[in-house]
Write a structure and sequence with these properties.
The complex is a heterotrimer. By secondary structure, chain A is mainly alpha-helical. Chain A has helices spanning 3-10, 25-29, 34-62, 73-109, 117-140, 153-157, 162-189, 202-234, 247-280, 288-301, 317-345, 354-377, 379-385, 389-419, 425-452, 466-496, 544-553, and strands spanning 421-422, 498-499, 527-528. Chain A is globular, with a radius of gyration of 23 Å. Chain B is mainly alpha-helical. The longest helix of chain B is centred in the last third of the chain and has 41 residues, at 212-252. The chains are: A mainly alpha, B mainly alpha, C mainly alpha. At the B-C interface, helix 1, helix 3, helix 6 and helix 8 of B face helix 1, helix 2 and helix 3 of C.
Chain lengths: 555, 294, 111
């Protein structure tokens, strides 16, 4: 039996799908198929997630005791810096767009591929190149400046590999820009006949908004890193106050991107949650236009608030006022989404499958994360809370409790579509619970720690903070188990999982009308769309009898 | 029944990529894609313009002084050269749309010629900066050895250094290739006319007297911005010339006709963008202090 | 979308060589104008008048290049939005950064 036949027999029988259509290494590495590119992203992104997680374990182990005993302070600085860099630039920012966005957007809009497939492949190459360079720098000795690279430490005093890591992040930025560019073009020009803007799934709207942020924001961090590198080489002193330079200028330019970057991280997650909540409540999403426009509003307003990272850095009081006010404003579109999701669930027919557990978890955890962001956006409180563990807890609630959980929900939801296999629901539910419990146990104590005054980025701390730190580390172990389990049972399902069929969830999206895994051209016949989004009825081709039958049998 | 599947037979025109249904869709996609790329390029240069804005508004006299030592003649010439190259680029697209192979090739060659002239002039300018000790990085300037036989007049205070345009240029000894700046006459001028900003009143003075070293440091910031901005722009020109080389080859082979000319149009968009960046760089870097010269 | 036919006029119905050269001449005039305007001291009108004049001329030149050399005049609305929107985004970056510097104690425009 040839390799082709062997894979065919596991994946989709005798008909060719995107996995079996070509089994040489070259056919994968030089592919133009958006689905293969997505899978290659999945493998690399998971690798970076694991590495970032190892750094996180080192941090939590060190913080078990008040003294800096496991790691020296200098090493600890490198560990938290690298945890941040790997997680933000190489895991969170690419995660949903590069994997789920790449895989699903053409299918969801009824196209054969993205508009610019070779640019998509180039995007992947830049990701590998940037990631490879950064890993190389990490192995040489890494960086210790914090992922924020604040000057003048990063330009003048740090003895670590700032320029090499900076170069890795710079190159990675091209990957982000090209992905965003590709999505914008695709969503404008490649929609199937009948697929109007307001029939698009909200997942696509979310990715359109994200792409705007990627294209408008990423080049600014690119030029900032370039200036940082040149300054480090040339020692001119543009960020050195003693000769007239300004360290705050670096922060302005850095946060101009890095604040919208957090919206790059969360908006795709919100897109996934919109899909999950609507589909698993078997109800049309409440307030479709509001959710669609709120994604665009978040993308736009997200560019106006970056100064809230600089309240105590030395920017003027007036600027702080303006940024604080706008920070309150930018919370409104996110709140609109939360209300709409809740209203969607009301009187819906809810099934608690693993993806839905993650979606509900998102709603609760993002609520806490988002609200604590407002605490940090008010100028009185922020003086007390800046650079404490309160900030750490806030951003982990939104980034992990929000984005990572949405990412896991999305991976589980579309796993049968991508692989043709169902994962084990039993283990899925167990690990979802473990992630939720472990996450809260890890990060909730950190709100208290921060409020009590424990500073962030410190390897040693006063003894009175130890008890809460021990809780936090214990929680991290539970969280770690909960995150490793999907890696195991998802891989297991690749060989031993039940074949999924076209539409295992009985959901109305266009992606569920093609086979699992889909053929290379996505559809056997390109669709013409005549139905609205999220229609749970005959019009969208759902077999209602079959759906009722499955519901009565389900757990 | 719910969905109807379309089943059209598609004739694939030459040059049509497989993911597109027809040429119109491909052209539209490529056009939006290129403009999105230009949008991010605008934001890329925008970061540098922000840095320029911040420092110029703080130290306008240092910027004016630094700018006056740039040669506006070469800068102006380069502006005209780029505008001509934009014209020839637009004509390249025009001839591609008319399927005129030879004229396309001629226009591309002219565009490349003017692009090369631009880079040549930049090389002349950068060399002169090297010779005058105006590169803001220690060690990258011409290292003039100490001339023990030369007369050393008593050094004038920096605000009395004259700025005669045709004065013989004297290069002080510079064994370590440092940034050199001796002329802070503009500080006195601005102080007399009450034009100094608060930051300048602190930044140029030590003990109530103009400090030549402090002023030199601010002028050095100007030159840093000058070199980074024009250097990045020149890098984009080099990429543009590479793009033109590819275009030259494919146009010579006759790829571009009235039915298929998008690559020429898209390359044109990039070239015009690089021109537009220079249209802003020229007045902001070269001309900002001219009105102070009497 | 995929099956829509583009009914817009293309620039090759409107632009010809004399018109391209005409735009070119406008750009040359703009360049010469900005060079000489920079030598006239306009600080009497208000400080910074020279810079304003220079920027106005530069904006005009850019507009001509974008509309006629880059054919934005005949392009779809989306392209207009991209061209105009990117400058709006630049304005956000400049304005919100400068609002910090302008309002500091060592304000940039204070005397």
């Amino acid at each position: 039996m040839s390799a082709q036949e062997a894979t065919s027999s596991i994946y989709g029988g005798t008909k060719l799908n995107y996995i079996t259509n070509g089994s040489t290494l070259k056919s994968w590495l030089l592919t133009k198929d958006h689905k293969r590119i997505a899978i290659m992203y999945l493998v690399t992104v998971s690798m970076f997630f694991m590495m970032g997680g190892l750094y996180a374990s080192a941090i939590r182990l060190e913080l078990l005791t008040p003294a800096s005993d496991l790691l020296e302070t200098a090493t600890y600085n490198k560990v938290f810096t690298q945890h941040g860099i790997l997680m933000i630039f190489f895991f969170l920012i690419p995660s949903i767009p590069a994997i789920l966005g790449n895989f699903l957007i053409p299918i969801m809009i009824g196209a054969k591929d993205l508009a610019l497939p070779r640019i998509n492949l180039l995007s992947l190459y830049f990701y590998w190149l940037g990631g490879g360079l950064t890993l190389f720098a990490l192995m040489q000795g890494g960086v210790d400046t914090g992922w924020t690279f604040y000057t003048p430490y990063s330009t003048t005093f740090s003895n670590s590999f700032v320029m090499l890591v900076g170069l890795g992040i710079f190159i990675n930025g091209f990957s982000s820009i090209l992905t965003g560019l590709n999505f914008i073009v695709t969503i404008h020009t490649m929609r199937a006949p009948g697929m109007t803007w307001f029939r698009l799934p909200l997942f696509v709207w979310a990715h359109y908004a994200v792409s705007l942020v990627m294209v408008l924001g990423t080049p600014v961090v690119a030029i900032t890193i370039l200036l940082l590198a040149i300054e480090r080489l040339a020692h001119v002193g543009i960020f050195d106050p003693s000769i007239g330079g300004d360290p705050i200028l670096f922060q302005h330019l850095f946060w101009f991107y890095s604040h919208p970057a957090v919206y790059i991280m969360i908006l795709p997650g919100m897109g996934v949650v919109s899909e999950l909540i609507s589909n698993f409540s078997r109800k049309k999403i409440f307030g479709y236009e509001f959710i669609a426009f709120s994604s665009i509003a978040i993308a736009v307003f997200g560019f106006l608030v970056w100064g809230h990272h600089m309240f105590v850095s030395g920017q003027s009081l007036y600027a702080g006022l303006v940024f604080s006010f706008l920070t309150m404003v930018v919370a409104v579109p996110s709140a609109i989404k939360m209300f709409n999701w809740t209203a969607t669930m009301y009187k819906g027919s809810i099934s608690y499958d693993t993806p839905m557990l993650y979606a509900i978890g998102f709603m609760g955890l993002f609520l806490i994360g988002g609200l604590t962001g407002l605490f940090l956006g008010s100028m009185g409180l922020v003086v007390h809370l800046t650079d404490t563990y309160f900030v750490v807890a806030h951003f982990h609630y939104v980034m992990v409790g929000g984005q990572v959980i949405a990412y896991l929900g999305g991976i589980h939801y579309w796993w049968p579509k991508m692989t043709g296999r169902m994962y084990s629901e039993f283990w899925g539910k167990i690990s979802a619970m473990l992630v939720f419990i472990g996450f809260n146990l890890t990060f909730f104590p950190q709100f208290i720690l921060g409020y009590q005054g424990m500073p962030r980025r410190y390897a040693s701390y006063p003894a009175e903070f130890q008890v809460l730190n021990i809780f936090s580390t214990a929680g991290a172990s539970v969280l770690g188990v909960g995150l490793i389990m999907p890696a195991v049972y998802l891989m297991h399902s690749l060989v031993f999982g039940k074949p999924a069929g076209d539409n295992p969830w009985m959901h109305p999206g266009l992606e569920w009308r093609t086979s699992s895994p889909p053929p290379t051209e996505n559809f056997e016949k390109m669709p013409v769309v005549t139905w609205e989004a999220y229609e749970f009825g005959e019009e969208s081709g759902l077999d209602l009898e079959e759906a009722k039958r499955r519901e009565s049998v389900a757990v | 029944m719910s969905s109807q599947y379309s089943d059209k037979f598609v004739y694939h025109e030459p040059g049509l990529q497989h993911q597109f249904d027809d040429m119109g869709q491909q052209e539209e996609s490529v056009s939006i894609g290129m403009w999105m790329f230009l949008v991010q390029e605008i934001m890329f240069f925008g970061g540098l313009f922000t840095a320029y804005l911040v420092f110029r508004s703080r130290y306008p006299m240092a910027f004016a002084a630094g700018s006056n030592h740039l040669d506006a003649f070469w800068g102006g010439l380069n502006t005209l050269v780029l505008i001509v190259s934009s014209l020839t680029m637009a004509l390249t697209v025009y001839y591609a749309q008319k399927s005129k192979r030879m004229m396309q090739v001629v226009m591309i060659l002219l565009t490349m010629f003017f692009g090369a002239v631009f880079l040549g002039v930049k090389a002349i300018e950068y060399t002169s900066k090297y010779n005058d000790g105006l590169i803001p990085v220690t060690g990258l300037n011409h290292k003039y050895k100490e001339d023990k036989t030369a007369h050393h007049e008593d050094a004038k205070p920096c605000w009395e250094v004259s700025h005669e345009p045709n004065a013989p240029v004297h290069h002080p000894p510079n064994p370590s290739g440092e940034f050199q700046w001796a002329d802070c006459s503009l500080v006195k001028y601005a102080s007399d006319k009450n034009l100094l900003t608060d930051a300048e009143k602190i930044g140029y003075y030590s003990n109530g007297v103009v400090d030549a070293n402090k002023f030199r440091d601010k002028v050095r910031i100007f030159y840093f911005i000058y070199f980074v901005m024009t250097g990045l722009h020149a890098l984009h020109m080099v990429v543009g010339l590479g793009l033109m080389t590819w275009l030259l080859w494919t146009a010579w082979r006759g790829y571009y006709t009235a039915e298929y000319y998008m690559p020429v149009e898209m390359s044109g968009l990039y070239w015009h963008f690089v021109d537009i960046v220079w249209i802003f760089l020229f007045p902001l870097l070269y001309l900002l202090g001219r009105h102070f010269i009497h | 979308m995929a099956t829509e036919h583009n009914h817009e006029h293309h620039e090759h119905d409107h632009m010809n060589i004399p018109k391209y050269i005409g735009i070119f001449m406008i750009l040359v005039v703009g360049t010469v104008l900005t060079y000489f305007a920079a030598t006239i001291d306009m600080d009497g009108i208000f400080p910074g008048a020279n810079t304003l004049v220079a920027l106005l001329i530069a904006f005009t030149k850019m507009t001509f290049v974008m509309l006629f050399f880059m054919h934005v005049y005949w392009s779809k609305r989306l392209i207009w939005l991209a061209a105009v929107g990117s400058f709006f985004w630049l304005a956000i970056m400049f304005a919100y950064t400068m609002q910090d510097y302008v309002t500091r104690a060592d304000g940039v425009f204070t005397r």
